[in-house]
Amino acid sequence: MSIPACPQCQSEYAYEDGQLLICPECGHEWSPSEVAAQAESDQPVIRDAVGHVLADGDTVTVIKDLKIKGSSSVVKVGTKVKNIRLVDGDHDIDCKIDGIGAMKLKSEFVKKA
């Protein structure tokens, strides 16, 4: 098992001392379970316009007409989008809409179906 880098100064010289990991450069001491729990909580929770938590593979419904940049097409209210994928960024939903193709949506313009 490799010892992870120090979460405070990113030093690669951390060593194990009993139940704790210690960084010789900055003196930081931490538990490996603390780092794992913190990594899980760092992932942002993406919510729809109503407040429901979204997950990969969900089906959502568009709640507002959305103009598509560079095109005269519009995604109409009530359009169902199946099998969404959550991504990082301003437009946090990656999906494929029938008749339009692949595109990214903002979670504030959809609700969970």
TrEMBL record:
InterPro entries: YjdM (IPR004624), YjdM_C (IPR013988), YjdM_N (IPR013987). Residues 3-31 form the Protein YjdM N-terminal domain. Pfam families: YjdM, Zn_Ribbon_YjdM. Residues 46-113 form the Protein YjdM C-terminal domain. It comes from the Bacteria. Belongs to the YjdM family. PANTHER family: PROTEIN YJDM (PTHR30305:SF3), PROTEIN YJDM-RELATED (PTHR30305). This is Putative alkylphosphonate uptake protein. It comes from Idiomarina xiamenensis 10-D-4.
